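Service request form, structural biology core

Requester: graduate student, group of Dr. S.
Request type: structure prediction, single chain
Budget code: on file
Notes: please return the result as structure tokens.

Sequence provided:
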Amino acid sequence: MMIVVGKADVGKTTFARRLYQELAADSGPVAFLDGDPGQSTLGPPCTMTVAVGGAKDGDFPPRSGTWSYFVGATSPRGHMLQILTGAARLVAVAREAGAGRIVYDTTGLIDRAQGGLTLKLAKIDLLRPDTVFALQEDGELEPLLSPLRRTKRVRVVDVSPSPARRPRDAEARRAHRARKFAQYFGGAHLHQVGWNDFPVLPQVSFQPGRLLSLEDIRGLVLGLAIVEEVDNRARKALLLTPLSSHDLAQVDALRLGEVRIDPQTFEDRALLPPWLDAGWQRGNPSRR
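Core staff response, request fulfilled:
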């Protein structure tokens, strides 16, 4: 297993993709783990996704099988347990699917004060990769890499950031997520579900616009949904989801996220407390 680390806009994903393609073209099945819920490559935002390719098939994205885990947020800040759980779950799924090698493209959070380097070390301790590929500009990863270079647990390979990389500001990142959500929910349907019919994780708190995951028995994503309407008396919610009625029969649990999605623009916002819910709807023209 190989983990690619570095701050935002150093070319991690470009390098990870090229690494995957080179490995996949010359060996048995290889998996690509897209571990960035904010700037996702394979799946929709707020998820981590692993895809497995066929033997000696260097096409990207991999096409032999795809599985996603719901983080429920666009940043690892405040959601590090979900990131670690998702990484471990998806690595196990990829190995069960026959992947002999896995390339893990991580998030760009490296700020020590926000727990970025601690999260990276936890991933390494948990997943025990053979190699860490590190992209850095001014030694920003050295607090993580220096002790790793002295251990026999993992090989550290330094990679120069791509000169062709194109930095994206916060607005460009939000626009990217909106495009990904719009693509994912294109052709979605409305379905009414009763929350007495499913376990709701972590607890029942449906609000219009809230993003949620409909999960299978393994805790993986069958599909995402946006809450359109809530009927608290009947304990029912109207969901916008690409899943069919047949797919809904396979749902084992609902997992609520911590973001709102505008179903008209597909822009995401932080989830408001329930007592501000009515105010959010009055101030959102698309919900009038």
